[in-house]
Write a structure and sequence with these properties.
Elements: E1 3-6, H1 7-14, E2 23-32, E3 35-43, E4 53-60, E5 70-71, E6 75-76, H2 80-86, E7 101-102, E8 110-111, E9 113-115, E10 122-128, E11 132-138, E12 150-156, E13 160-168, E14 171-178, H3 182-201
Antiparallel strand pairs: 1-2, 2-3, 3-12, 4-11, 4-13, 5-6, 7-12, 8-11, 9-10, 10-11, 13-14
Length: about 200
């Protein structure tokens, strides 16, 4: 059974100002066996629909690693449409939900020149490293996407961190984060303190 948690919900619950620039947010699913699937999407609250360009990179935190499964043991799968086509095929069967890829069915991402946020090198499209997954992609000059635009599905055997930029007409905005965010940890600590105080009063 998959368990979901949203990274943006916790942040919004304690935020006092709304986001005006694009922010990379995520939903988390517990896949079992210590694996977690993170669906990353763009969150914004200004109601604009514009073209996006992203240079984003993800890495596992500590000893955690990005899961990058090959179909038939040899075929690199980078996008959702291919992951869907290969799902269940081969021996052992390829599992779409256990691999890392970008969304290309609901969002038309195409490779564009950009900068690898981890080492500063120039790149285009998707680059998979030993424990990182990087994309430099755009939605096209005349495209119109807004709040909730799907970016990537990242599978990790632990927590994940990311950095890079998301650009639209107003220019690039820096993105950096890690799961769980400090806001999540703060809420967990406050909840634990509240439970201790309640127990002492009873």
């Amino acid at each position: 059974m998959l368990r979901f948690a949203s990274g943006v919900v916790v942040v919004l619950a304690i935020a006092t100002v709304s986001f005006a620039t694009p922010v990379l947010s995520y939903d988390r699913a517990d896949l079992g066996g210590g694996l977690y699937g993170f669906t990353f999407h763009i969150h914004e609250s200004d109601g604009k629909s514009e073209a996006y360009a992203c240079s984003l990179g993800w890495k596992g935190v500590g000893t955690a690693t990005i899961q990058q499964v090959k179909a038939f043991g040899a075929v690199v799968v980078d996008k959702e449409s291919d992951a869907t086509s290969y799902d269940g095929l081969g021996s052992p069967p390829y599992a779409k939900t256990l691999d890392t890829w970008y969304y290309d069915t609901s969002t038309t991402w195409v490779g564009i020149p950009g900068t690898n946020p981890w080492d500063g090198t120039v790149m285009t499209g998707v680059v998979q490293g030993a424990n990182d997954w990087i994309m430099s992609m755009g939605t096209g000059a005349l495209s119109t996407y807004g709040d909730g635009t799907l970016v990537a599905y990242i599978v990790v055997n632990g927590e994940v961190e990311w950095k890079g930029t998301i650009s639209r007409e107003a220019g690039p905005t820096s993105q950096i984060g890690q799961t769980p965010e400090p806001a999540t940890m703060s809420l967990l600590v406050l909840g634990g303190l509240g439970m201790l105080l309640k127990r002492k009063r009873s």
